Amino acid sequence: MSNTEKKPAAKKKKKKVNGKKLFVWMLAACSFAVVLAFAGYLFIIANGQKELAQGADKFNMDEAAHVYDVGENEVTTLSRVNREIVEYNEIPELLRNAFIATEDRRFNEHSGVDLYSLGRAVVKDVIARSAVEGGSTITQQLAKNMFLNADKTFFRKATEVSIAIAIEHEFSKDEILKMYLNRIYFGSSAYGVKAAAKVYFGVNDLKELKIWQIATLAAIPKAPSYYSPIVNPEKSKERRAVVLKLMADQGYITEEEKKAAQEVDYTRPPETDKKQYLTFLDYVVKEATESFGIEEEKLLREGYKIYTTMNADAQRTLEQTYDKPEMFQKDGPSQKIQSSMVIVNNKDGGIVAMIGGRDYVQKGLNRALVPRQPGSSFKPIVVYAPAIESGKYSPYSMLKDEKMDFNGYSPNNYDFAYRGQVTMTEAVKRSINLPAVWLLNEITVGKGMEFAKNLGITFESQDRNLAIALGGMTKGASPLQMAMAYSAFANNGVQYKSHSIVKIVKPNGETLNYKQEKPKQVMSAKTAYYMTEMMKTVVETGGTGVRAKFNRPLAGKTGSTQLDLKGLEKYDRDVWFVGYTPEWSAAVWEGFDKTDSKHFVTVGSGSTAAIFKEVMSKSMAKMPATNFVKPDGVSPPEESKAPDAITGFKAEYAKEIRAVRLSWNAGAENLQYRVFRKSSKEADYSLLVEVKSATVNDSSAMPGETYSYYVVAFNPDTNTESAPTDKLEIKVPADGGVSPSPTPSPSGSPGTSGSPGTSGTPKPSDGKTPKPSPGTSGSPGASPSNGAGGPSPSSVEAGAGTTVPRVGKPVNGKEQQSIQDILKNEDGPGH
After folding, report:
1. 210, 166 contact by CB (below 8 A)
2. Would you call 75 helix, strand, or coil by DSSP?
3. 3-state secondary structure of 382
4. How does residue 620 score in pLDDT terms, banded at 50, 70 and 90?
5. DSSP structural state of residue 384
6. Which residues have C-beta within 8 Å of that of residue 645, sequence separation ≥ 6?
7. Which of 109, 288, 403, 426 has its CA 20 to 30 A from that of 393?
């Protein structure tokens, strides 16, 4: 080997790993990891505590206001969110366990986060490369519902975990479970388990829930719209079976209980109509805001308890009646025929029931508060009650019933018949217009308005005229105003302020009571009693409101306002019935929101009377009937003794004077005699003449015509009449001729009645004297409308040749209603 050859380079020696250094390095790394983990844990805890503190108000859940009827029975709720809070002890143990078994089986062991479930979720999320698995505990779900949105991101998940741990630190397991069950959404607008139990099963007490119902509720939160038994009963049943298996596996129910609960088919309970009580509830909210000073938002979110004056049976009956099309006139081409009704308690002014229309919607037009012209239902308020209150009139006072002109205002009676004089009771019973207008003119418009204002009626400045006697007002009165005004008649003249709330219990337990104002004595007890006595006749046979009659003491008044469109005057704009029993008063209105040539009322006030009967008879069916009570110290209105019946009535044709001679036995000296006649061509009797003597010669009788006569005695001192005589018929010979017309004697001469045209007829209600018939003028002493056989103004003689002027006049050829029309409408235009 050459000396110049190089030796191969020696290999580098490997360094051995120092175990001590490795240990130190690993220890440092672990320590660092622990520090990081601890720091992360501290961050999570701190972040959770911070979120919890910042969102402390989120623990205050919205809760529905609870509404109670007059019997303090809960009838419904008012809410922005349909939620009812329950305490932990109100939640049965099996219901709690059903949710634990389904949503978080280790709920009682973990501290807000179930690491096993969370790890499983993370693995699945990593595999799927997105957040697909929840892994949330009940506490985490509560945190999410309260503080976070539903987005599935890792950041949100971390925040959810931090808040869940904070919640577990601050609250007990029982408190957490209670908050969870009160907060979660169950579909069908139900938040919280109690609202869900009501919606799906009609159950108010959670302890009454059956196993299958509990499992059904526990099945819903996973996907409320998908597992709702209402929306998807089959899927709900499948999911219920899963819940029942979980409950059985975890020992909460037996296998037998599981199998029995799996087999039940869901049947929806009778639907709680969410439209029930809407008018009343809207009024309650309005009153709570205006009278109790509670903001609507607070009222609907903070769980107030509202105790009302509502009678739930009456309110439901009212709403059911208004759902029946047959109770109303047919709808117009572009508008629905509308109606409203309100019932009030006479003894305290509490609103018993109210409906604002046939299709009332929440916060809609409440027609029970909308003024409309009240027609003749206004007569008792503005005419008859103030007249009686004046002390100058009574129910048997005679009122003028003549065609009159009041400084350019010339109203008509609905049947265009004028009776000369009628009692106030008869005017009320048959809703005759002219006596009301005449009487208001007598007592003055100012007195009538002042009386009505004291009953709660409001007027416009333009209303100061005689038209208000017939309800002709600029705006009118609302059904609530009318019902409250009439309540004073039923309550001995005492009127309370209307209200719908008895008391409100605040969330903190404080009670706010309705402060009842001192009731007003708006009229004397005597006036109220006399008004009731008169209005009782309205619902009896022959009265305009007979269709309102049912088997309780009852009084009331019809009303209608005449349509003022050319060619449609026989129809109405508004129709009313306002009536009362000793306990309740009610007002019913019917009409169109906007009246025009295609939308007007054709059914008459009999329709509103029938609605009144339908609602009141059913609503009061379970109530004991009471009677109207005559006030102490008040005597019944006395009707003066009528004259004795006339005797010796004879009728014969006297050829020598060519006249029908009528004679009878004279009575007392102060009596006058009213002779009524009807020809064969006339539909009914009309007044021929009023005389003081006991003999009348009718020389106006036409040859060949047949006539029928009767006579009544009239006492002008007491404004009373006797019963009529029998009717005598006589035929004038064909060649009898007509005697020349003698010259009339001066007004007021012996044998005359005084002022022509001021006589009256016997009351139609006595069943003895026929009422004036449509088809004739009906005016006392008026000639027949067909002109046949009618005497001229000076062709009737009384006594020894004394000429007696005719009273009354024709009806200017106006077309008359048929008797069928009158019976159908019962209460004509302006009544």
Report:
1. no
2. strand
3. helix
4. very high
5. I
6. 713, 722, 723, 725
7. 403
Active-site hit among 117, 228, 236, 376? 376
Identify which of 467, 461, 443, 451 has the alpha carbon closest to the alpha carbon of residue 373.
467
Residues in the chain: 831
Name residues whose C-beta falls within 8 Å of residue 131's C-beta, 6 or more positions apart in sequence: 125, 152, 153, 154, 157
- Which 3 state secondary structure label does DSSP give 577? strand
Q: What is the rounded CA–CA span in Å between residue 276 and residue 319? A: 8
Name the average pLDDT for the chain.
Answer: 82
Measured CA to CA, the distance from residue 183 to residue 381 in angstroms comes to 55
Residue among 63, 84, 103, 302 flagged as catalytic: 103
Contacts of 172 (CB under 8 A, 6+ apart): none
Does residue 295 carry a catalytic annotation?
no
Residue in 40, 294, 342, 328 with CA at minimum distance from that of residue 161: 40
Give the C-alpha separation, 421 to 441, whole Å: 16
Residue 540 carries which DSSP code?
S
Beta bridge partners of 698: 660, 796
Nearest residue to 485 via CA among 460, 525, 454, 529:
454
Q: Compare 41 and 784 and report the one with higher pLDDT.
A: 41
d(Cα 420, Cα 434) in Å, to the nearest integer?
Answer: 10
The residues with which 345 forms a beta bridge, in sequence order, are 584
Q: Which pLDDT tens digit goes with each residue over 802-824?
A: 333 333 333 333 333 333 343 33
Say if strands 720-721 and 686-691 run parallel, antiparallel, or are unpaired.
unpaired
Per DSSP, helices labelled H in 57-136 are: 93-103, 115-128
Query: By CB neighbour count within 10 A (0-12 exposed, 13-18 middle, 19+ buried), where does 775 fall?
Result: middle
pLDDT of residue 759: 34
Per-residue confidence (pLDDT) for residue 808, from 0 to 100? 34
Amino acid identity of 773? S
Residue 774 to residue 637: CA distance in whole angstroms: 32
Report how far apart, in Å, the C-alpha atoms of 541 and of each of 433, 468, 548, 680, 826 are. 20, 27, 11, 28, 11
CB 701 within 8 A of CB 658: no
User: 30-87, pLDDT tens digit by residue?
Assistant: 766 665 655 555 555 555 455 555 555 555 667 889 999 999 999 998 877 778 889 9
Q: CB–CB of 795/741 below 8 Å?
A: yes
Distances (CA, A) of 497 to 283, 492, 494, 515, 775: 15, 15, 10, 10, 48
Does the annotation mark 376 as catalytic?
A: yes
Tokens found for residue 214: 């509990």
How many CB atoms neighbour CB 32 within 10 A? 10
Distance between CA atoms of residues 374 and 471, nearest Å:
5
Residue 751 has pLDDT above 90, yes or no: no
Give the rounded distance of the alpha carbon of 745 from its chain centre: 62
